[in-house]
Amino acid sequence: MSKNKRLRAALNDGTLFTAMAAHNPLVAKLAEQAGFGGIWGSGFELSASYAVPDANILSMSTHLEMMRAVAATVSIPLIADIDTGFGNAVNVSYIVPQYEAAGASAIVMEDKTFPKDTSLRAEGRQELVRIEEFQGKVAAAVEARTDKDFVVVARVEALIAGQGQEEAIRRGQAYVEAGADAILIHSKQKTPDEILSFIQAWSGKVPLVLVPTAYPQLTEADIAALGKVGIVIYGNHAIRAAAGAMRKVFEQIRRDGGIANVDKEIPAVADIIGLQGDKYMRELEARFLR
């Protein structure tokens, strides 16, 4: 079964699909080894890895090429975070086939203006486009895909923008009418109450997608029991884990004036060489180098 079909099947049969964020192929490989169902090609994480804000500062080509590298490295589906679609419906029509050709099994596109501001930033600039405008972008994405199993997810930012549940439901339903295969509903509230209220009010015509960054107390078992959620995305844990670990190691090296104490606490060089696919390269050498 292709990656696209596997993701589509999970949405259709009600299985909760889990995706871990990744900002490069090594992270994606580690996420696959840990047992996640898919990879979230996070714009936030990629921006952070370049030390720039998650505000459409990086070009589409930078994100697209990283998605291509990630998809080529893992055997699980990749969900590409394309922010606002890098423009209007015409831009979306051009870029969706490129992400599909790069190996993504889905795109997620949000209904904010371009350039966007990251959703979880305190006092962020959260401006939404007109419903009709975003319906056009969703319809363009659906029409542009070449594989019917390629998933188009519309991300509703009404709760993030403080516009309330009624507006969020209205937008979600409109995007389903435009052809969206799933609706990502986002919240930055510190408890899941706002999200749970939305889920209860949701018609269930298509599955929902959650990103529980702000309300981590909601477990996968809790989410699956709701019966309306198809995908849970862990949106930024890879970059946060990496930044925390690197900061800790770097600070200890400076305190100690050397690496003797940290060396035993971090993966061995041989472990990293293994993750790089060294075994396969040696097999190629044995077969073809003469």
Automatic annotation (TrEMBL):
InterPro entries: ICL/PEPM (IPR039556), PPH (IPR012649), Pyrv/PenolPyrv_kinase-like_dom (IPR015813), Pyrv_kinase-like_dom_sf (IPR040442). Keywords: Hydrolase. SUPFAM superfamilies: Phosphoenolpyruvate/pyruvate domain (SSF51621). The keyword Hydrolase applies. It holds the Pfam family PEP_mutase. GO terms for molecular function: phosphonopyruvate hydrolase activity. Its EC number is 3.11.1.3. CDD domains: ICL_PEPM (cd00377). Belongs to the isocitrate lyase/PEP mutase superfamily. PEP mutase family. PANTHER family: PHOSPHOENOLPYRUVATE CARBOXYLASE, PHOSPHOENOLPYRUVATE PHOSPHOMUTASE. This is Phosphonopyruvate hydrolase. It comes from Herbaspirillum lusitanum.
